[in-house]
Amino acid sequence: MSNLYLILLHIFLTFVLTHSAPKGSLITNVPGFNGSLPSKHYGGYVTIDKSHGKNLYYYFVQSEGNSSKDPIVLWLNGGPGCSSFDGFVFEHGPFNFEKPVTKGGLPKLKLNPYSWSKVSNIIYLDSPVGVGFSYSRNETDYGTGDEQTALDTHVFLLKWFELYPEFLANPLFLAGESYAGVYVPTLAHKIVKGIEAGIKTKLNFKGYLIGNPVADEEFDGNALVPFAHGMGLISDQIFEDTVKACNGTFYITDFDPCSKLISKIHSIIRALNRYDILEPCFYGDEKEENHKHNPKLPLSFRQLGKTEKSLPIRKRMFGRAWPYGAIVQDGIVPSWPQLISNLNTAPPCTDDEIAMVWLNNPDVRKAIHTVEKSVVSEWVLCTSKVIYHHDLGSMIPYHKNLTSKGYSALIYSGDHDMCVPFTGTEAWTRSLGYKIVDEWRPWLIDDQVAGFTQGYANKLRFLTVKGSGHTVPEYKPKESLYFYKHFLEGTPI
């Protein structure tokens, strides 16, 4: 009898493992790529509210390793209002994209040797609804916020695992960057509450990692002035005068003479590329291609953005990071962090044309199973369609709660990002008050310093990535895959 039971169980599991993916979700070809995919790809929608016709789009890449055992990672880009195809196309997706020879032509895709799918299954989710290919039949859903987004994404995950039950036992991690510093801990909170409540679909949640994350009004708001001083962007005298006039509080600037000094700092640093102060930024109608071989530029500037990827580092797009557009707090546009908000008046560098061309190509949209153009007429990297309310305040209590319960957390920062500077992130991670178990030290790649890190009790780690801007896997793909792999495995970095 026991042998019969084992045979039947084997047959059942074999059926589940080979037949559980929703019909029509398998992506059989990826336009622009020639060759066999290194793992299975799936794409489609999960309806999270049938009455409203509320649908979230996902692109799922199975691990190139052991997909049945490797972790499942949900990736979220920030904004709020930016598509997670940002991470897919420009950061750690399975492909590197080459610009087409003719303008508007289909980009060529090559395999990315530093794809995060090398060591994990990864879900790229367009969230909240109204972002990327996600949509609702009821446009009132485009007014949302932290609480609703966390609730919706939790519903998505529960329903996604119903569609892909073979992955339910895999370790689950959350990951993201920028305003996903709000998305990730609030979603993790919902997941943990569900686990503790004993809901039917029990997620095997293990932890999260976030890059250059928005976290807290005070810490983030106060970060830029010491960052600018430490990086030599403002003089000792300006820094000392500002500290004295502002009493060390730089994010509330509606009083003189503090506000005048903060405005002075803004005017000094305004022309810098705020997503990476080392990167040049070209304005007007001229494209960076006209400059990258310009002999008048210093060699160091001509080599900025040099990478093993076929597509060089992008110069950041205006409004590309939080706060993107229509974000509301208590009915008004918030001042958090005021310094970052003021930086959004800076001129643009270049656009993200290659993603726009590829994702709006009819063959691509058909291949990856997006909704028809009558519903989502055009994919854009970051949308102003979503009216977003920051309604959950500081993320520090969320981090404290999650890490105190034993969930692993890696908070990493590109150390040349001026949008969400590492100075604030290092300060709030330290403010949790945990015992230091791995004192500040360099971490290495190929016997070279790749950044610095400090480990705390309760499996919390802060890490910097040397020379990186806001989107770390884009600037430092090899280093990113290294710390990503080690974090997921729970091995030393």
UniProtKB/TrEMBL annotation:
Pfam families: Peptidase_S10 (PF00450). It is found in: Secreted. One of its GO terms (cellular component) is extracellular region. Keywords: Carboxypeptidase, Disulfide bond, Glycoprotein, Hydrolase, Protease, Secreted, Signal, Zymogen. InterPro entries: AB_hydrolase_fold, Peptidase_S10, Ser_caboxypep_his_AS, Ser_caboxypep_ser_AS. It comes from the Eukaryota. It is an enzyme of class 3 (hydrolase). Its EC number is 3.4.16.-. The keyword Protease applies. GO terms for molecular function: acyltransferase activity, transferring groups other than amino-acyl groups; serine-type carboxypeptidase activity. Residues 1-20 form the signal peptide. Its main location: secreted. One of its GO terms (biological process) is secondary metabolic process. Probable carboxypeptidase. Belongs to the peptidase S10 family. This is Carboxypeptidase.
